Amino acid sequence: MALDRRPRASEGRILVLRLLPWLLLIGLIGALSYLRLLDLRLSPLRAQARTLLEQGIALTGSELADLSRSALVLGQMPAIGVAAASADTSAMASALLAHARASPRHAEISWIDEHGRERVRTEHLDGMALLATSSTLRRPAQMPWLAHFADLLPAEARFSPLGREGGRHTLRAASPVYDAAGRLRGMVVIQHDLQAMMARLARLKQPALEPLRLYDSEGRAVSIAEPQPLAMRDPELWRMLQEQGRGRRELDAGMWHFQDFLPAEPGAGRLAMQPWFFVAHVPRDSVEPLRHASAWQCLLACTAAFGLAVLLVRRQRRTEVERERLLADLQTNHRALAEAKAGADDALRRLRQLQDELVQAEKLASLGLLVAGVAHELNTPLGSARMTASTLVRRLGEAERELGATAPLPAPVTRLLERQRAGLDIIEHGLERASQVIRLFKQLAVDRGAVERRRFELDEVLQDVRRLLVPRLGSEAPPRPVPVSLHIASGAGLVLDSYPGPLGQVIENLIGNALMHAFDPPPPGLVQGSIRVLCRVDPAGGDSDDERHDHRPDELAIEVIDDGCGIDPLVLPRIFDPFFTTRRGRGGTGIGLHLCHHFCTQVLGGRLLVESCPGEGSRFSVRIPLRAP
């Protein structure tokens, strides 16, 4: 059997190709499962980190709220307002000292007057609240933090940035002081020692996490000791803190959960400082075991799934081999039957095609013979009638001259002669029109044997057509809705071995058809119509749209293009039918385009194609071989 003769390597490649999608699918599912399993195992650690952040923010918020309330209470205390209004430093010192003794974590409490000078300050030394001597009171230059309190609002408590004095982290809160008349009398500034708050933050712990870290707005560690600012030690984490404010980062080295904290004063207070940042770090030692356990579980599951896939693919392959063996003979028989049927269908198609062409040719030949016979029978009486009409016109003129030479003719006689002359003109015009129709009828019987075949240059035919059409385009041309220009491209250098007479008749009829139909009525907005005749040589089979022309020789393409009103899509399929015209009773015979099609297909051995869009014009394409058949 054919399958038995296959190389073992080929069968192995087939199995590998079958297993490759399974491998990719199992690998993808394994990766997603690993991520999901790891996510489930890391969820408790993430929850611990969020809890630690919430506890730290709650503790810090409570501490700062107490500090803010203390500053507001001092700023709105009546005794302090009265002392500030009278500049009574003794009364001010008593009030501040009483509050300092009740709040031992306030390292300093100062009254700064409205000119920025420190007038009273309390300090804590060895657990006792004392007044600073007048010599140690600070000038504005010694208090750079004073600029943060320059525009305090009434009933506002504002914080300064975190500071470090004497090796301890401190924070200042200020509130304005007003007298009974509502005039600003300076401010009360509390310097708060944060060491106790930092100790409480350090005692906040979760089982698998490092202690909570607090960073100021410049990335300096506040709650723990770190040698470098966070911006230098971990620039990527610092960038995330600055851009996101809240989020997490997970790397091989662990997980970092962070959240910014922006102190806000109650009441009418405003955000008065840059944010601080809390960071909860889950170390690598806590994360790595979870990752390893998840990876091993997923790897074992993927290995088992891949082994099962190998068994399924091998069984499926054996089934396919058996099916291929059973279908091999049947496919051979079907192939032979299909080839025989295809040959029969092709022969039948060609036979029907030839039959249709033969029927059409016989119909046109019969029509041509009939019309030519009728034209021949009508030609003699029409010739006699035209001769008689010409004689009557001539004799009427002679009689009019003889009668007018002797005496003026009476008016009734003159009118009678004019009516006779008009009637004879109508007769002559009608006979001339009938003769033209008869000549067209006679051309329907023209075949290759009745016309001259020779070698000629295309430019000769185009020049003859141009000369014949001059009267229809010059000053003597019949009036049209818009003027029309004709441009015929040069055909110099193109030599044909064909029938120049029918070719010239085709080009002339196509241009005449455009003059008659394309611009009556003209498209909206058209001021100057144009008709162009273009020529080119297409290589063999260049643009064939029919398999019958796949092997035709080089052909000449002549295109007659107008920018007129176009052809109605309902009319377009019938324009080459004999005696079909849209100008019945207005000079149309329905023979012109049929003659063009007849000459192109039956005499010149080519095709006549048409493209048209209403309102945009039409394009007639004559395609004939350079050497006629």
TrEMBL record:
Keywords: Cell membrane, Coiled coil, Kinase, Membrane, Phosphoprotein, Transferase, Transmembrane, Transmembrane helix
Chief place where the protein resides: membrane
Organism: Sphaerotilus sulfidivorans
Gene3D superfamilies: 1.10.287.130, Histidine kinase-like ATPase, C-terminal domain (3.30.565.10), PAS domain (3.30.450.20)
MF annotations from Gene Ontology: phosphorelay sensor kinase activity
Name listed for the protein in its UniProt record: histidine kinase
InterPro entries assigned: HATPase_C_sf, HATPase_dom, His_kinase_dom, HisK_dim/P_dom, HisK_dim/P_sf, Sensor-like_sf, Sig_transdc_His_kin-like_C
Enzyme kind, highest EC tier: transferase
Lineage: Bacteria, Pseudomonadati, Pseudomonadota, Betaproteobacteria, Burkholderiales
PROSITE patterns, alphabetized: HIS_KIN
Coiled-coil zones: 337-364
Regions crossing the membrane: 15-35
Subcellular location: Cell membrane
Membrane topology of this protein: Multi-pass membrane protein
A Pfam family hit: HATPase_c
Catalytic activity line of the entry: ATP + protein L-histidine = ADP + protein N-phospho-L-histidine
Top-level taxon of the source organism: Bacteria
EC numbers on record: 2.7.13.3
Cellular compartments per GO CC: plasma membrane
Domain Histidine kinase as annotated: residue spans: 373-628
